[in-house]
Amino acid sequence: MRRHWLRNERGFTLIELLVVIIVLGLLVGLVGPRLFGHVGTSRQAAAKAQIELFGTALDAYRLDVGSYPTSAQGLQSLVTNPNVPNWNGPYLKKREVPLDPWDTAYKYACCPGQHDDYDLWSEGADKAPGGEGENADVTSWQSLKSRKAAQQ
Question: What is the pLDDT of residue 57?
Answer without folding.
Answer: 93
